[in-house]
Write a structure and sequence with these properties.
The protein is an alpha/beta fold. It folds into two domains: 193 residues, Glycogen Phosphorylase B (Rossmann fold, 3-Layer(aba) Sandwich), CATH 3.40.50.2000; 146 residues, Glycogen Phosphorylase B (Rossmann fold, 3-Layer(aba) Sandwich), CATH 3.40.50.2000. The protein has 14 helices and 13 strands. Helix 7 packs across helix 12 and helix 10 crosses helix 13. The mean pLDDT is 93.
């Protein structure tokens, strides 16, 4: 039987881990923390203020400070960057000093460079999940000449290949979702799009494709870019295209499960595509642009892929996907997007890291 572990999860210092989720990362960390706790492990979460609602774990405070008036007048550095850097610097110093022996594993899900750059100062082994492509600040931390004292796992084979020239081969643990929370729905006569409303998610392309397919479209998610929403999305809203707001998980499950097809339209190389797995778990077939890690999730029994940015192809894919048997779509999610399997793979990776750590300690 595996012994209980003391696990510190590092998440975003800007976006709270609570419902309704700001994005896929916050949803992932929320469910992961709950699952680890259900397995009997002691989880402590570092995330933005307001995190922890309904979470059976402790939350590390985010240290803040008041900038001087002189600092605020400096025009080149946004305040949020300064506050974020201060927050991660503070927590890493705490983990290296005040909390030195408090944890068995530090699991880094942040997109900030400091946890990687300062990992060498910890006595506790660190695992970093690569949730994104090689962003410049992350890449420069990994490329430090001294090396980085962290193991790495990528969320898809595609993302692992992107990082390979920078830090070599890494293990792949695909994201999973809680299949008990995402129940299959009955389907319906509309298309659905969910996610953050930002340019790289391609919401406007979903609107165009739904119209060409003759399908009403319902949109849900947080407005991550107000200018993009006001300029491109709001003018398109009418009796066939509706915005349903920023929904809690159960509300989103109902919306997605009631759709004939889900449209997934990234204009960037999506590292995994959590909304694809959520739709499949809801029994809703998916029509998606073939970008990033999405083709690793979707097969001919659960959806259709279209060439990136090809709206006509996506419209055709949506009509084809809508005819697929919903039970087969759900079965694909159960086989390949199972949260329980993902959690066990992470726990095994923790065990492997701790075994290596023990072997390196002199007798």
């Amino acid at each position: 039987m595996r012994r209980p572990l003391r696990i510190a999860l590092l998440a975003s210092s800007r976006y709270a881990v609570r419902q309704p989720f700001a994005g896929g990362m916050e949803s992932f960390v929320y469910e992961f923390a709950r699952a680890l706790t259900a397995e009997g492990h002691h989880v402590t979460l570092f995330a933005a203020p307001g995190s922890g609602t309904d979470l059976p774990c402790e939350v590390l405070p985010v240290h803040t400070f008041e900038m001087s008036e002189e600092s605020r007048r400096e025009p080149l550095t946004p305040e949020w960057i300064v506050h974020e850097t201060h927050a991660y610097l503070s927590v890493m110093l705490d983990l290296g000093d005040r909390l030195r022996d408090a944890f068995d594993i530090v699991h880094n899900h942040s997109l900030h460079y400091l946890p990687l750059a300062m990992a060498r100062s910890l006595s506790t082994p660190m695992l970093t999940t690569l949730h994104t492509p090689p962003l410049p600040w992350l890449e420069q931390a990994v490329a430090l000449p001294q090396g980085v004292a962290s193991d790495f796992v990528a969320v898809s084979a595609f993302t692992a290949r992107q990082w390979d020239p920078i830090n070599g081969p890494v293990s792949v643990i695909p994201n999973g979702i809680d299949l008990d929370a995402w129940e299959p729905g009955p389907g319906g006569d509309y298309a659905v799009w969910s996610g953050r409303l930002v340019p790289e998610k391609g919401t406007i392309l979903a609107i165009e494709a739904a119209r060409r397919a003759g399908l009403p479209l319902r949109i849900a998610g947080p407005v991550g870019d107000r200018k993009y929403f006001d300029q491109y999305i709001a003018p398109e809203l009418d009796d066939t295209v509706s915005y349903c707001g920023h929904l809690r998980q159960d509300e989103l499950n109902d919306l997605v499960g009631g759709a004939a097809v889900a449209l997934v339209t990234p204009t960037w190389e999506e590292p995994f595509g959590l909304v694809t797995a959520e739709a499949m778990a809801s029994g809703t077939p998916v029509a998606a642009f073939a970008r990033g890690g999405i083709p690793e999730i979707l097969d001919a029994g659960s959806g259709r892929l279209a060439a990136p940015d090809d709206v006509d192809a996506l419209a055709g894919a949506a009509l084809e996907a809508a005819e697929l048997p919903r039970a087969a779509v759900r079965a694909k999610a159960e086989a390949d997007c199972n949260h329980a399997v993902m959690v066990q793979r992470y726990l095994q990776h923790y065990d492997d890291m701790l075994y290596r750590e023990r072997r390196q300690v002199p007798a």
